[in-house]
Amino acid sequence: MNIGLFTDTYYPQVSGVATSISILRDTLEQMGHQVYIFTSNDPKVSRNVYERNIFRFPSFPFTGFPDRRLAYSGALHAVQIAKELNLDIVHTQTEFSMGLMGKFVAFSLKIPAIHTYHTMYQDYLHYVANGKLIGPRTVKTAVRNYLKNMEGVVAPSQLVYETMVAYGVTAPIRIIPTGVDVHHNVTAAQTQDLRQQLGLTAATPVALSLGRLAFEKNIEDTIDAFQAVLSKNAAAKLVIAGDGPARQSLTDHVDTLGISDSVIFTGMIEHTDVPRYYAMADVFVSSSQSESQGLTYLEALTAHTPIVVMNSPYVKDLITDPSIGVGLDDVDELAVALLPYLNKTAQVGDLAKRDAKINEVSAEHFGTEMLKFYEAVINEYQADDDRNSDSIFGAFSNPFKR
């Protein structure tokens, strides 16, 4: 099968969406399929650099979100490329520029298009005119319009599924959690080396926060909780791995609390180093309440590192045993939940249940379920010839409609 993934966000940009797409691409290729990435160009990628099966289009930085980009041209060129590649299906990963381009490509070639809804935009409205320009109702209308005439929608979690239903999406929706690499080969020596690089000993209790340092991640709540942890365990350290727009605000907050010696900001880390960070930590912590699929939670799980995170329908489905971690309803409970893991007194739980959960979130399972959905969508599309008779002028009357 020839599959076209259309996304505004891809490496070297760092995000859960980019990671999800990379995992899907690698897994489907390992299964013998051809996967092509259609995405925006990036200043960090030279035009002279060859990227296998990746096609980049002219773009500009997104207002209020400068490390994300929007393509502004190339739709006809994308159609030509997709035709030469003989794409069987278009899978859009964004509702913006490259998503609209993907819909145009699918319409032009008369092939089906599906979409993965990655981002709970109501949690990000502050990036646009401080939330004064776009409200939740506008998001609902725009998303519903974008998904009109899609042949299918992938919801990475129950939370996303329920959101799509509440938005009135009529396309078939299938819950397919994003998978992660479960085949880590991090050695004890590697974790010890990393601890030494961070100025930690083998005995230092370590809590890890890893991901993009964005305001909606509520990392300040994690820092506040860690201040309370230190009153019970002064030797503990909080490692905050990653970078982002909230970095300066968070470092200032740490300084204000007077706990700079106990909090380590690593800055951006290489993707290949991520498993080592999870493996060296005693517990992974997140106070974010905007996670639609929680890839960092899954990555910690596959490293056998327990997680302490805020509850959501997704988390409640993920944490089914103490061996996986704890979901909390109130950020004020963070410190109390972290201490047993840092003090090495937490219940181990049923390790067999943890291993079963790891298998459920494997990249292989992810790819298999996605391929089943592709096949079902293609078969349904081919059985319905009426969809191929739409006027092309109808597509332009509403830019959200394929």
From TrEMBL:
Residues 14-182 form the Glycosyltransferase subfamily 4-like N-terminal domain. GO terms for molecular function: 1,2-diacylglycerol 3-glucosyltransferase activity. It comes from Periweissella ghanensis. Its EC number is 2.4.1.337. Pfam families: Glyco_transf_4, Glycos_transf_1. The keyword Transferase applies. Residues 192-332 form the Glycosyl transferase family domain. It is an enzyme of class 2 (transferase). Keywords: Glycosyltransferase, Transferase. InterPro entries: Glyco_trans_1 (IPR001296), Glyco_trans_4-like_N (IPR028098), Glycosyltransferase_grp1 (IPR050194). The keyword Transferase applies. This is Alpha-monoglucosyldiacylglycerol synthase. It comes from the Bacteria.
